Amino acid sequence: MVVLSTHRLGARFGSRQVLRDVTLPPCHSGEVVAVIGPNAAGKSTLFRRLAAILPGPGECRLEDVRDADRAIAYMPQDPTASAVLTVFESVLLARKQVSGWRLERSDLMAVDQALAALDMGDLASEILSELSGGQRQLVGLAQCLVREPQVLLLDEPTSALDMHRQLEAMRQVRSLAHDDGMLVLIALHHLDLALKFADKVAILHDGTLHDFGTAADVLTPENLAATFRIRARVEPCSQGKPHLIVDDAI
Ligand SMILES: Nc1ncnc2c1ncn2[C@@H]1O[C@H](COP(=O)(O)OP(=O)(O)OP(=O)(O)O)[C@@H](O)[C@H]1O
């Protein structure tokens, strides 16, 4: 079982410290961990530290991985799409970047599967740079899936998706964790998605870890007021499912 934890992770840009002493409790294979927090809280910076593409103090520990070079797939907040490639080619390229350049039949099947899982099969021959923002976001997700990582770091992968596709993408993400045993860390602004799909929630605020636990434990009126500056509460709807009710900005 893969276990990811951090010890006093930090990051600074020039003289500004934007991430400070973030110690994440152990996160395990099979879990969806939502990372939430207001704008500029440090979510993307944390993901970049976890993906080891940004230097800084502290330690990120990853235990029990099969192949350290291939263990993590990271989807940035703004995946670029400048190359003149089709959707299929770009997803295949993402897979070959981690599995070597010899093309196997299994590679083509894996690309087909990743596109089908996100209901994008009919976009396979479209040119990447001609897609809509939401479609590009789904391609970024497919590029991560096709690498078959053990840890998936997704930085706001649903921000450009319509509600149906947000729910479908989150269902897929949850299945990757619960059915396939991946550890998924996902930055989200849509708190209802965190409530509905995450096993654990980390709240970042001002570059520090404000709280960590189940959604029920951390999405409290006090935490939401202190970090998001909203008056809000989680209450069961008429069907008995928990929903976030936002009364006002503070
Ligand atoms: N390359 C950079 N150079 C300088 N400052 C940066 C850089 N990247 C991020 N920052 C700063 O770090 C802080 C945290 O940014 P980050 O993108 O991690 O926040 P975030 O929680 O992901 O925000 P959002 O929800 O708006 O995407 C911000 O104050 C931002 O201005």
TrEMBL record:
SUPFAM superfamilies given in the database record: P-loop containing nucleoside triphosphate hydrolases (SSF52540)
Keywords: ATP-binding, Nucleotide-binding
Every ABC transporter domain range: 4-231
InterPro entries: AAA+_ATPase (IPR003593), ABC_transporter-like_ATP-bd (IPR003439), ABC_transporter-like_CS (IPR017871), P-loop_NTPase (IPR027417)
GO terms, molecular function: ATP binding; ATP hydrolysis activity
SMART domains linked: AAA (SM00382)
Pfam families linked to this entry: ABC_tran
Record PROSITE patterns: ABC_TRANSPORTER_1, ABC_TRANSPORTER_2
Membership in a protein family: Belongs to the ABC transporter superfamily.
Cited function: Involved in beta-(1-->2)glucan export. Transmembrane domains (TMD) form a pore in the inner membrane and the ATP-binding domain (NBD) is responsible for energy generation.
Name of the featured protein: ABC transporter ATP-binding protein
Organismal lineage: Bacteria, Pseudomonadati, Pseudomonadota, Alphaproteobacteria, Hyphomicrobiales
